[in-house]
Amino acid sequence: MFESLPQGIKISIARSITTSFEQYMNQIEWDETAYSTSEFIQYWRKYSEEHASWFNKVNEEMRITPSFHKELTDKINELIEKVLSTAPTKEQMDKIDELVKELVIEDVDYCCKAEAKYVINKLTMEIEKKKITNPTATERQMRYASILYYQAFDKELPDDEYSFEKIQEIIDVAQKELQAQKHTLVVEKNMPLQ
Predict the structure, then answer these.
(1) Going by C-beta distance under 8 Å and a sequence separation of 6 or more, which residues neighbour residue 44?
(2) How many other C-beta atoms lie within 10 A of the C-beta of residue 40?
(3) Residue 111 domain-assigned (yes or no)
(4) If 20 and its partner were Cys, which of 47, 122, 157, 178 is the partner (CB 3.0–4.6 Å)?
(5) Cβ–Cβ under 8 Å, residues 24 and 43
(6) Helix, strand, or coil (residue 136)
(7) Same domain, 155 and 170
(8) Is 172 helix (H, G, I), strand (E, B) or coil?
(9) Same domain for 100 and 48?
(10) 112 and 83 in contact (C-beta within 8 Å)?
(11) Which of 48, 55, 47, 29 is nearest to 115 (CA)?
């Protein structure tokens, strides 16, 4: 029954299965313990009804027959196996390594190309979120901090890309050090000579 369908409809069905499976897995954050076959089937059915071109092209009589359901179940299992067995690309693995280093986190697990795509998106969003909540210091702030740091500690501020928060911390420490040095100079100046 499934095999008798036009090629375009079979492709649309296959695409709806793989797309909805990847979306469902992303929704549950690729947590295998959270996976539910019945939930996925409901998710796929809703996706197919709302987004897949094949759904309205296959008559309802055919869609409700047990043999069509059996063939669809086989196709679903075949395509899920294909998604899970497609290895991540070298580019994906390199990108994940780069993002893990940038976030200074432990290595993350992923088993297939689709999950690697999810991990890349998730880590990239974490980096973007970090940039928004912890923006880098401006050039002007960096210059000011460098001058204060040099005056306070008589050495250059290490060359690095500092967050706004970190630069403010450096400025505060340098100002406190300069205040302490000023106080020491005042005390030494006012000390009676003996």
Answers:
(1) 16, 17, 20, 21, 24, 76
(2) 20
(3) yes
(4) 47
(5) yes
(6) strand
(7) yes
(8) helix
(9) no
(10) yes
(11) 29
Percent of the chain with pLDDT over 70: 91
Rg (CA), the chain: 30
CA 90 to chain centre: 18
Q: Is 121 helix (H, G, I), strand (E, B) or coil?
A: helix
The residue among 71, 83, 76 whose CA lies nearest residue 43 is 76
pLDDT of residue 187: 44
Q: Are residues 126 and 98 in the same domain?
A: yes
Instruction: Tell me the per-residue pLDDT of 73-125, one tens digit each, with 9 for 90 and over.
Output: 999 999 999 999 999 999 999 999 999 998 888 889 999 999 999 999 999 99
The answer to whether residue 1 sits within a structural domain is no
Q: How far apart are the C-alpha atoms of 123 and 125, rounded to whole Å?
A: 5
Looking at 52-163, list the stretches that DSSP marks H as alpha helix, in order from N- to C-terminal side. 60-63, 66-85, 90-103, 113-133, 139-153
Domain containing 125 equals 90-133
Q: Considering its fold, how many domains does the chain have in total? A: 3
* pLDDT band (50, 70, 90) for residue 184: low
| Nearest of 144, 133, 134 to residue 171 by alpha carbon | 144
Tokens representing residue 33 in the block? 């313990």
Q: Which of 115, 111, 108 is nearest to 21 (CA)?
A: 115
The span from the CA of 100 to the CA of 97, in Å, is 5
Cβ atoms of 1 and 68 within 8 Å: the answer is: yes
For residue 2, being part of any structural domain is answered with no
